[in-house]
UniProtKB/TrEMBL annotation:
Annotated protein name in UniProt: Aspartyl/glutamyl-tRNA(Asn/Gln) amidotransferase subunit C
Reactions accelerated catalytically: L-glutamyl-tRNA(Gln) + L-glutamine + ATP + H2O = L-glutaminyl-tRNA(Gln) + L-glutamate + ADP + phosphate + H(+); L-aspartyl-tRNA(Asn) + L-glutamine + ATP + H2O = L-asparaginyl-tRNA(Asn) + L-glutamate + ADP + phosphate + 2 H(+)
Subunit structure: Heterotrimer of A, B and C subunits.
EC numbers for this chain: 6.3.5.-
UniProt cross-references to PANTHER family, sorted A to Z: GLUTAMYL-TRNA(GLN) AMIDOTRANSFERASE SUBUNIT C, MITOCHONDRIAL
Length: 95
């Protein structure tokens, strides 16, 4: 499979990119180099390789979710630049 300038033009159109002829030729050459490199995978014998969804086994490394007491409100509000009625006061984002 080879990538032509027309293929690059099509993808550039989908991405709303305006490429000149030199850029189209450059990208076609680079994409063909990538495909040529990826074709090396066809030379590998994968008969005894089981299909996997990940290269490494996944293990959940997160800690257990346990409830802990929160900080007191007065200590939390020490970090607030401004507070009102026990809540953080921020500038309005809606008019």
């Amino acid at each position: 499979m080879t990538i032509t300038g027309k293929d690059v033009e099509h993808v550039a159109g989908l991405a709303r990119l305006d490429l000149n002829e030199a850029e189209k030729a450059q990208f076609a050459e680079q994409l063909n180099a990538i495909l040529k490199y990826a074709e090396q995978l066809n030379e590998l014998n994968t008969d005894d390789v089981l299909p996997t969804s990940h290269a490494m086994p996944l293990v959940n490394v997160m800690r257990e979710d346990t409830a802990k007491p929160s900080l007191p409100l007065d200590k939390v509000l020490l970090n607030a630049p401004d507070d009102e009625v026990g809540q953080f006061k921020v500038p309005a984002v809606l008019e």
